[in-house]
Design a protein that fits this description.
By secondary structure, the protein is of the alpha/beta class. It is built from six helices and five strands, in the order E-E-H-H-E-H-E-H-E-H-H. The protein has a domain at 1-42. 47% of the residues lie in helices and 13% in strands. Strand 4, helix 4 and strand 5 (133-134) form a beta-alpha-beta unit. The radius of gyration is 17 Å and the shape is globular. The two termini are 34 Å apart.
Amino acid sequence: MPIHKQPSAVGVKATVSIDVTPGAGEDLTDLIDTLAAQHQFVIIDVQGSANQELAAAMSRADLVIIPMRGKTADAEVATNAIALLRKQEKLFQRRIDHGVLFMATNVRVKTREEKDIRKDVEARNIPCFQTDLNERTAFSHIFRFKLALDELTEKETNGLEAALENAESFANEVIHILRKRKEEAA
């Protein structure tokens, strides 16, 4: 289990542990429960498909982030994820906080397709994050170099500072939503 020291969204050093997916025969809900008992935040990435893993993750979620590019194909996948989320809410008789995260967006220009999709999402009263994750070289370099964002350097990654600011803005928004939810529940 790799462990990285990195600044947290509030500027305090924090230990972040990255755990892998469940092993053969291991139940995802059991893994989530185990990790939740050990860590303040547990983030599960189910690779965007509306499947059994997504349903299991939603069953334990405090917040479901539905990533979507401003493209029609992504909107259709997001629609399936939201439909599954609604079924999970009925099954577990509880509201599951969620929001669409527009990602890989252009900072300067919104395409007509993206504008239309945003209007449709708004008209359907689907919650969206205020922060987009913009198209940034640094975000793809995370995968290319297999490093955390704060481990990249300006030498190999153009626009790193803007990517760090973008990521911190999104992290702060997520933390705000989670804290607000916790206060409302108290």
